[in-house]
C-alpha cells in the first residue's frame, strides 16, 4: 500500500509543481489569509483548457490543501521536498519506467519510515477469543473500583507531572521551500 501512496504522492507533486509561486498572502485580518491565484497557475503552465485540473483546483479538497500548506513557515514533509527539489528528477523519469519504479520504491520506503520511526519496538498481538468462549458460564463480574487507590494513583501522577518538563511535539517548523517557478513547466 505504501507504493500506491507513493505513486499518488508523485502524481500530486507533478500536478501542483510550482503552486507556491501562485500563493498570495493577504494580511488585512488578524490572521493572514492565503489566496491561490488559479488563473495564473493554469496560464503559466499552459493548462487553461484542462478541464480535469480546473475541477481539481476548484474543489474543496484543494481549498483545504491551500489553507493547510499555504503558510510560508510550517513543518515541512516529503511532499514539500518533492515539489521543491525533485522536479527535474520526475521529469527525467517520464520516459524511463525502471527509474520511475525505483523512485516510487524509495518514496514508499520513506513513507514507511515516517509511519514507523521505531521499528525495533514490537507490537503485542491480542489473541482472538476461542470459538465458543461467549458461551462460558463462569464469567467473572467486573471488579469494584477502589476509590482510595484511584485517588492515590491520581496524586502520584500529579506529583510526577509537576516535576516533568512540558511535552512538546517533535515537528520543527521551517521556511517552506518555494521550488522552481511555474513558468518552467511544460504541459505533458
UniProtKB/TrEMBL annotation:
| Ranges in coiled-coil conformation | none
SMART domains noted in UniProt: dDENN
Task: Give the matching InterPro entries.
Answer: dDENN_dom (IPR005112), DENN_Domain_GEFs (IPR051696), Tripartite_DENN (IPR037516)
- Matching PROSITE patterns: DENN (PS50211)
> Where is each UDENN domain found?
1-76
Per the record, its GO cellular-component terms are: cytoplasmic vesicle
Q: Where is this region: Disordered?
A: 159-180
Which Gene Ontology BP terms does the record give?
regulation of Rab protein signal transduction
GO MF terms, alphabetically ordered: guanyl-nucleotide exchange factor activity
The family database entries (PANTHER family) matched by this protein are listed as: C-MYC PROMOTER-BINDING PROTEIN, DENN DOMAIN-CONTAINING PROTEIN 4
- Protein name (Swiss-Prot/TrEMBL): MTMRD protein
Taxonomy of origin reads: Eukaryota, Metazoa, Chordata, Craniata, Vertebrata
Q: Which gene encodes it?
A: Sbf2_1
